[in-house]
Amino acid sequence: MKFLPFVLTLVSGASIDLWPLPKSVKMGSDDLKVSKIDIGSCGDEGGRMARAIDRFGSLIIGDGATDGADITLTCESVSTAIGVATDESYSITGTSSSVSVTSKTIYGQMYALETLSQLVTTPGTITGGSGLSISDSPSYPHRALMIDTGRRFVPLPTIKQNIDAMAANKLNVLHLHFADWCRFAIESDVFPELTEGLTGEQGGFYTKDEVREMISYANDRGVRLLPEIDLPSHSGWGFPLRDNGKILYCDDVGSGPGMRNDEDNTTLSTLNAVIKEMSDLFDDSELFHIGADETSSGNQTGCGLEDISSLENGVLRNIVDLGKIPVGWAEVLFASKGAVGLEGKAVINSWQSTGARPKDIEAAGFDAVESDSTHYYLDTHISYDDLWHNIGDDDDTSQSKKLLGGEVSMWTDAYCYIGQCGALDLPVPVGAALYPPEMNEEFGASFNGMVWPGAAVAAGSFWNYDTTITSDQVKTSIDNGVLGRMQTRGMDACPVGCTCDEVSRCGKNYIASE
Question: What's the CA gap between 426 and 131, in Å, rounded?
Answer without folding.
Answer: 60
